[in-house]
């Protein structure tokens, strides 16, 4: 009985900065989808919370996070980094997860959701290939058919991840229209879903998409802040840090890192976007600085667009932040002033990545390097506790680091 009461509390609208029952965060969110997609999205919307908060789902999800992903990920006190910036820095080590980043938390959750919905076929779209790899991984784990749509240009640029997906048994289908990048792959995936509504689940990889995706992805990723709370309690005697910091592409590692702190006003929320070559150079992905309200990927949010509403091609040295929008939660955090938004250039992110490597022996993903560039923009107090989401490891980026720093 107690359990049931607890679980129904989970299912309710969490209030404050969380999604309401229609998937709105303030004015952002919702589900703006073609009529023909309505049955698929509606099936998910009606059932996702009931499925997610059954005992059997929670048990299987947490068992896999533990035994397969390797959770809990450590909360590591970064001594030398703390000394350098004269503050207390903790790193949430999502880089130590199986497949090397936070994305697996979400794909594990969604593959279990797909199974409970009786689906046998998984589709996904990917830009850099990281979400594609995380999806192909869980499909192999569950013995499900996996089709990953990817722009033809991205297939050429991201050959190692394409090889990984194939090795894991996935089919990689090229998107041949438009600019042959992420948004074209997204269109192909949506077309596939419309044509295969009964047996197929579409795994979206960030805190974006039509409701319920942003909220569902956030809840799966919220294990990050759930762990931070008890880990910080053990280390500092208190659950709430003074700041949580994360980089933002679509916003899933950030959403998971912020989730349990959003309604705790004493916790400062910090977001770092990719400024590319500079916010105003025309080669950037700094959505909060440059974006306007529009509709992308089925939700209303901030996105980079021309005066007549065409989506602008974003640019960042990190493939995972090279996205023209942000999830609706982040648009609301920006607009309401709940979060501080910064943007870090390619150079700042690369420098911060090198610094973390040499101060702590941890080579981060370049996406993650953006979060560490916060120290170039903000000064913290000596007794501030600052938790940074170390969203992924840098193995995949080694060639970019080598070229940039002329290491070879
Ligand atoms: C994909 C990725 C990101 C960006 O995605 P979010 O949804 O914004 O978290 C950040 N870091 C790493 C390591 C990634 O792989």
TrEMBL record:
Lyase keyword on record: yes
Top-rank lineage group of the source organism: Bacteria
Class of enzymatic activity (EC top level): lyase
Pfam family, one: PALP
Reactions this protein catalyses: (1S,2R)-1-C-(indol-3-yl)glycerol 3-phosphate + L-serine = D-glyceraldehyde 3-phosphate + L-tryptophan + H2O
Modified residues (N6-(pyridoxal phosphate)lysine): 103
EC code: 4.2.1.20
Essential cofactor(s): pyridoxal 5'-phosphate
Record pathway: Amino-acid biosynthesis; L-tryptophan biosynthesis; L-tryptophan from chorismate: step 5/5
GO terms of molecular function: tryptophan synthase activity
UniProt domain Tryptophan synthase beta chain-like PALP: residue ranges: 70-392
Statement: the UniProt record of this protein carries the keyword Signal: no
Keywords from the UniProt entry: Amino-acid biosynthesis, Aromatic amino acid biosynthesis, Lyase, Pyridoxal phosphate, Tryptophan biosynthesis
InterPro entries in UniProt: Trp_synth_b_CS, Trp_synth_beta, Trp_synth_beta/beta-like, TrpB-like_PALP, TrpB-like_PALP_sf
Stated role: The beta subunit is responsible for the synthesis of L-tryptophan from indole and L-serine.
Summary of subunit composition and partner proteins: Tetramer of two alpha and two beta chains.
Protein family per UniProt: Belongs to the TrpB family.
Designated name of the protein: Tryptophan synthase beta chain
Organism: Maribacter chungangensis
């Amino acid at each position: 009985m107690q359990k049931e009461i607890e679980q129904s509390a989970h299912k309710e609208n969490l209030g404050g900065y969380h999604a309401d029952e229609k998937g709105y965060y303030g004015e952002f969110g919702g589900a703006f989808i073609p009529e023909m997609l309505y049955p698929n999205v509606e099936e998910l919307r009606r059932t996702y919370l009931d499925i997610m908060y059954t005992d059997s789902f929670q048990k299987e999800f947490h068992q896999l996070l533990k035994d397969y992903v390797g959770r809990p990920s450590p909360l590591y006190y970064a001594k030398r980094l703390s000394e350098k910036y004269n503050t207390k820095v903790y790193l949430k080590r999502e880089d130590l997860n199986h497949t090397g980043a936070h994305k697996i938390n979400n794909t594990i959750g969604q593959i279990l959701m797909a199974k409970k919905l009786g689906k046998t076929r998984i589709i996904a779209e990917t830009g850099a290939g990281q979400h594609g790899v995380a999806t192909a991984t869980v499909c192999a784990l569950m013995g499900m058919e996996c089709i990953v749509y990817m722009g033809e240009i991205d297939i050429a640029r991201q050959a190692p991840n394409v090889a990984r997906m194939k090795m894991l048994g996935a089919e990689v289908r090229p998107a041949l229209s438009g600019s042959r990048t992420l948004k074209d792959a997204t269109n192909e995936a949506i077309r596939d879903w419309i044509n295969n509504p009964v047996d197929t689940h579409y795994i979206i990889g960030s805190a974006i998409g039509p409701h319920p995706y942003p909220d569902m992805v956030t809840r799966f990723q919220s294990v990050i802040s759930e762990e931070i709370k008890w880990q910080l309690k053990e280390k500092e005697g208190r659950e709430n840090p003074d700041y949580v910091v994360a980089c933002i592409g679509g916003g899933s590692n950030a959403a998971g890192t912020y989730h349990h702190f959003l309604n705790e006003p004493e916790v400062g929320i910090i977001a770092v976007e990719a400024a590319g070559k500079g916010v105003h150079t025309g080669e950037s992905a700094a959505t909060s600085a440059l974006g306007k309200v529009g509709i992308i990927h089925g939700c209303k949010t901030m996105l980079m667009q021309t005066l007549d509403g065409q989506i602008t091609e974003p640019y960042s040295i990190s493939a995972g932040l090279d996205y023209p929008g942000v999830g609706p939660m982040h648009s609301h955090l920006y607009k309401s002033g709940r979060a501080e938004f910064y943007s870090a250039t390619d150079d700042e992110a690369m420098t911060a990545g090198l610094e973390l490597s040499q101060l702590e022996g941890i080579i981060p993903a370049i996406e993650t390097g953006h979060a560490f560039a916060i120290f170039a923009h903000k000064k913290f107090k000596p007794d501030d506790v600052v938790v940074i989401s170390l969203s992924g490891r840098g193995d995949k980026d080694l060639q970019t680091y080598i070229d940039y720093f002329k290491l070879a």
